[in-house]
Amino acid sequence: MLLDASLQVGGAVDPVRDPRVAPIMATVMATMRRVVAGACCAVAGAVVVAAPVLAAPATPAPTVDQKQDLFMQYLTDHGVPFTSRAQALRLAQSTCSTLGSSSPTRVQDAASAIQNDISMRPEQMQLFAGAATTVFCPTVKIS
């Protein structure tokens, strides 16, 4: 997605200036603040993800491409490693599927899948899982 240069700061989308991205980014950032604040934590090698905060839809829902672009930009901006866009998007969808299952080990299963697919530090896994659930499966509840 090409954006007007006036919407970018240092090569990254500035959500304050881009009305299309701001509502989505606000949701992602609220969840990420919860990650940093300890709402999500590594427990015995597993990632525990808090339920995302949902923003009231004030604008039309973002398209699939917009969601994918936002997700990829977030990973890039926060130093979360990935091999390719296709790989990261596939893993995000897989994370949502796993976390949405009824398996009692779904959180551990999702963490293992992320770690096996892309070597990440625990905090990077938390950011990846938090962004994936916020952007692609916001109704998934982790208990």
Task: Write up what this structure looks like.
With 143 residues, this protein is mainly alpha-helical. It has one domain. It is 50% helix and 7% strand. It is built from five helices and four strands, in the order ββαββαααα. It has helices at 22-36, 64-77, 85-99, 106-117, 122-136, and strands spanning 8-9, 12-13, 41-43, 46-48. The strands form two sheets. It has a two-stranded antiparallel ribbon. Strands 3-4 form a two-stranded antiparallel sheet. The radius of gyration is 15 Å and the shape is globular. Mean pLDDT is 72; it is low at 1-9 and 32-53.
Can I get a quick summary?
This protein is mainly alpha-helical and 143 residues long. Helices cover 50% and strands 7% of the residues.
Keywords:
50% helix, single chain, globular, disordered N terminus, mainly alpha, transmembrane, two-stranded antiparallel sheet
Low-confidence stretches at least 5 residues in length (pLDDT < 50)? 1-9, 32-53
Domain unit count: 1
C-alpha end-to-end distance = 35 Å
Give the spatial strand order of the biggest sheet: 1-2
**How much β-strand is present in the residues?**
5-15%
In round numbers, the mean pLDDT is 72
Largest sheet: 2 strands, antiparallel
Tell me the number of helical segments per DSSP (H or I, 4 or more residues long). 5
Helix content: 40-55%
> Radius of gyration over alpha carbons?
15 Å
Count of beta strands: 4
User: What structural class should be given to the helix and strand makeup?
Assistant: mainly alpha
Order of helices and strands: EEHEEHHHH
Overall geometry comes to globular
